[in-house]
Design brief:
The complex is a heterodimer. By secondary structure, chain A is mainly β. Helices cover 0% and strands 48% of the residues of chain A. Chain A has a six-stranded mixed beta sheet with strand order 2-10-9-4-5-6, with no helix packed on it. The radius of gyration of chain A is 13 Å and the shape is globular. Chain A starts with a strand and ends with a strand. The mean pLDDT of chain A is 97. By secondary structure, chain B is mainly beta. Chain B is built from no helices and ten strands. The relative contact order of chain B is 0.34. The chains are: A mainly beta, B mainly beta.
Chain lengths: 115, 104
């Protein structure tokens, strides 16, 4: 059974940084392209970015609104996906989910950017 | 960039009704389309992958069809637990705007 558990969210001031983690199990993580998605309160899900498997190059792509501020990385030895978020803005406030492009974490992790 | 247009944005229905939700891609995505159900406070739950593959554990009243640019999600006989918001997603990428299914 695929399990994805996000963590690392919290309250941060505008301009601050946060690193999210996603612990994966139930599938071959190293073979998977992994994606971060976020959902602002009362809104639909929004694609944030993805990282390819190392076999496919290991590169990451980002949505325009986070390009240059967010960085996705992975540690295949730990079956863990990361999202480093810098220069956070109030509009980054959302629940962040990781996905293997099929399954999502059950609850995500809430990031609140507020002064 | 590919856009996903989902309709309707909301739908009022009753238990036992047949419900159809449509999703249109701005360019062909072959069958690379997933359907999700989401309830408040929870992550999206995968119902259908590759446009028409019912995922394990999902009731057979759910079905998906389509390829290229036009896709549909059908619930053959609505059950009380089906009232939720439904999203299509080009696999791993762009979401439709969602369809909120409410009780009539």
């Amino acid at each position: 059974e695929v399990q994805l558990v996000e963590s690392g969210g919290g309250l941060v001031k505008p301009g601050g940084s946060l690193r999210l983690s996603c612990a994966a199990s139930g599938f071959t993580f190293s073979d998977a392209w992994m994606t971060w998605v976020r959902q602002a309160p009362g809104k639909g899900p929004e694609w944030v970015g993805r990282i390819k498997s190392k076999t496919d190059g290991g590169t990451a792509d980002y949505a325009a609104h986070v390009q240059g501020r967010f960085t996705i990385s992975r540690d295949d030895s730990k079956n863990t996906l990361y999202l480093q978020m810098n220069s956070l803005k109030t509009e980054d406030t959302a629940v962040y989910y990781c996905t293997d492009n099929y399954y999502y974490g059950v609850q995500g992790t809430l990031v609140t950017v507020s002064s | 960039d590919i856009q996903m247009t989902q309709s309707p944005s909301s739908l009022s229905a009753s238990v036992g009704d047949r419900v159809i939700i449509t999703c249109r891609a701005s360019q062909s995505i072959s069958s690379d389309l997933n359907w999700y159900q989401q309830k408040p406070g929870k992550g999206p739950k995968l119902l259908i992958s590759s446009a028409s593959n019912l995922r394990s554990g999902v009731p057979s009243r759910f079905s998906g069809s389509g390829s290229g640019t036009d896709f549909t999600l059908t619930i053959s006989s609505l059950q009380p637990e089906d009232f939720a918001t439904y999203y299509c997603q080009q696999r791993g990428y762009i979401f439709g705007q969602g369809t909120k299914l409410e009780t009539k």
